[in-house]
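Quiz preparation item.
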């Protein structure tokens, strides 16, 4: 971008220094071409939209008296022709420290966060998995539905409330909150909270297309709450537990690298036809 602007400035200065008409026309043509490409480049950057699918849950420790909170997220980048999913991948290396006699002393655990990418041409049923943004070839071709089921909660039936009773509806400035009370049972939450917003209807990812359509809003947050269970004769007490699923706008960082990955993906697919 800086190089293009500098070149345009130099060309404008030359116009004032050159008297021959045909040379001036040539310089104006070059300026127009550079300006058009600069605008086209900016437009392609702005054509990306970003969504983050975040989730958090609590799992019992081995003692069954407290929960471990785990959370993660998937970033989704889109333009008119492609959808790119950025998937977190954790690599753990465990080092065991021994004394000179070979007896155990301690254990060091180091976890590194990396990202994998799933690139899909819109409306195609297969996509490509890349081990990193700088990969030179895809690792695997995978059905889009299979990927979404494994990583993005496809077929999770977030809108299955046939046996639930709506308790309340709260209208806030930026969203609507609905509270449901499902049928009782150990596998069912005690309370479900659904959050809808009209400001997020441009998001393509959907927890429930049916609810998005019927509410004329985007279902962007879901909370499943399990109340604490007091101790009983046959089991210990269980603390309150909550599962959260949420859609947010994502900052699109590293657009140049994303564009290069898309170009590589298209090149690889065309070469295998």
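Solution:
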């Amino acid at each position: 971008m800086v190089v293009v602007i500098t070149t345009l400035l130099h060309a404008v200065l030359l116009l004032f220094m050159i008297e021959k008409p045909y040379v001036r026309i040539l310089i104006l043509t070059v300026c127009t071409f550079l300006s058009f490409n600069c605008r086209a480049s900016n437009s392609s950057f702005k054509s990306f939209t970003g969504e983050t699918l975040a989730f958090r849950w609590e799992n019992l420790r081995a003692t069954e008296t407290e929960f471990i909170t785990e959370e993660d997220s998937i970033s989704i980048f889109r333009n008119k022709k492609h959808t790119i999913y950025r998937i977190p991948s954790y690599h753990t290396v465990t080092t065991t420290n021994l004394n000179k006699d070979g007896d155990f002393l301690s254990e060091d655990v180091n976890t590194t966060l990396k990202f994998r990418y799933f690139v899909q041409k819109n409306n195609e049923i297969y996509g490509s998995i890349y081990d990193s943004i700088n990969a030179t070839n895809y690792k695997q071709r995978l059905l889009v539905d299979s990927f979404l089921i494994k990583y993005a909660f496809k077929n999770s039936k977030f809108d299955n409330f046939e046996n639930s009773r709506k308790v309340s509806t709260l209208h806030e400035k930026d969203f609507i909150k609905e509270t449901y009370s499902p049928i009782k049972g150990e596998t069912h939450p005690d309370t479900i909270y659904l959050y809808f917003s009209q400001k997020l209807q441009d998001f393509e990812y959907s927890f429930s297309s049916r609810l998005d359509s019927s509410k004329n809003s985007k279902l962007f947050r879901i909370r499943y709450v399990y109340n604490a269970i007091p101790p009983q004769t046959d089991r210990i007490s269980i603390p309150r537990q909550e599962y959260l699923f949420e859609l947010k706008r994502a900052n699109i960082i590293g657009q140049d690298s994303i564009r290069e990955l898309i170009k590589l993906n298209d090149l690889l697919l065309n070469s295998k036809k």
